[in-house]
Write a structure and sequence with these properties.
single chain, 334 residues, Rossmann fold, eight-stranded mixed β-sheet, two-stranded antiparallel ribbon, 15% strand
């Protein structure tokens, strides 16, 4: 479940395997009350400041989600979907294996092209290639026709077949986007907004604050999930990593958001639930951050990750909301 920037000397961290990267975040516990203060591990309680602009991560920060892309039934469903809708036949094991292989191939090729440390592919390209590798198809009146024997194939020009493949492989292909939504929803068993999110978003709007999304995600998955959870209209701009070809903590990803919206980094705060990606990208861009501990990490683990990235003890130590309650991002009197 997910989806690249001038570095301020952040030590490298192991990048998850492609299989892990394509999985979404684990199930998290929704917090009902603020039980711990905002803590700074270096100095104790750190005062919550007010900012002009609030830049949010999505999954694990605003949305509590759980998907499982390893379940065999998912790949059986996808085999049926591909055969029924595209004429592409796979066994479930072969489909999952090739899916992961293409993900890795796409990421490697993208990294060669853009030179990013943290490239982000488009999942539509992966499914398009899976289909085109297996299906015998041509375009006809914006639809797909399948041919099961040589006599039918003889009536199809290479030009038509190639044009169809190009159209299918386009991220704008509605058929592919529908497939991606089906895949996501078939793999997902939880999608809820954390308590307090709508409340804090409305309050920020009332205060005239800028609200932005910076998410390591796939637009093919995330666009509908934002709509389904009622979050889309809160944002002044939405940056999704699959659109940009890079993801957090790549500095350029955050910098593009700042540049395109004419924002000053010193008037913004990055808010997220991941030290490496969210706090890390803010640190690399000289921006302050707030860490929401929605996954109940121990102070020892948080301290270790901050130390590993060279953030601990710096002027850009994040505010840490110990229980992950997003309502604590504003000063108490707000």
């Amino acid at each position: 479940m997910s989806m690249q920037e001038t570095t301020k000397n952040i030590a490298p961290k192991k990048v998850a395997s492609m299989e892990q990267a394509m999985k979404s975040t684990k199930t998290t516990k929704t917090t009902k009350t603020i039980t711990k203060p905002a803590m700074n591990l270096a100095t104790g309680i750190k005062t919550i400041k007010e900012y002009d602009n609030y830049i949010f991560d999505l999954y694990g920060t605003l949305i509590d989600i759980h998907t499982d892309e390893e379940q065999p039934k998912l790949w059986e469903k996808m085999c049926d979907y591909l055969k029924t809708n595209f004429g592409a036949e796979y066994t479930s094991k072969a489909l999952r294996k090739r899916y992961l292989e293409i993900c890795a191939e796409e990421e490697k090729e993208l990294q060669k092209r853009n030179g990013a440390d943290f490239p982000e592919i488009q999942i539509e390209d992966v499914w398009g290639k899976l289909i085109c590798e297996k299906a015998d198809m041509v375009a006809h009146n914006d639809d797909v026709s399948y041919y099961d024997n040589a006599s039918n194939h003889d009536n199809v020009s290479n030009h038509d077949s190639n044009d169809y493949s190009k159209n299918l492989l386009s991220p704008d292909s509605q058929k592919i986007r529908t497939l991606c939504v089906y895949f996501r929803e078939a793999s997902r068993d939880k999608l809820v907004v954390y308590e307090g999110v709508h409340e804090i978003m409305k309050k920020l709007k009332e205060m005239g604050k800028g609200i932005y999304l910076l998410s390591n995600a796939q637009r093919a998955f995330t666009e509908k999930e934002l709509e389904d959870t009622g979050l889309t209209d809160y944002f002044d701009d939405i940056f999704i990593s699959s659109d940009k070809g890079i993801k957090k903590p790549e500095t350029a990803f955050l910098q593009q958001l700042l540049d395109e919206n004419s924002l000053n980094f010193d008037k913004c705060v990055m808010i997220g639930n991941d030290i490496f990606s969210d706090v890390g990208v803010a640190f690399k861009n000289g921006m302050e951050s707030i860490f929401l501990n929605t996954y109940d990490f121990t102070e020892k683990k948080i301290d270790h990750e901050l130390s590993e990235l060279g953030i601990k003890g710096s002027e850009l130590m994040p505010v840490i909301i110990g229980d992950g309650d997003i309502r604590a991002i504003l000063p108490v009197n707000k």
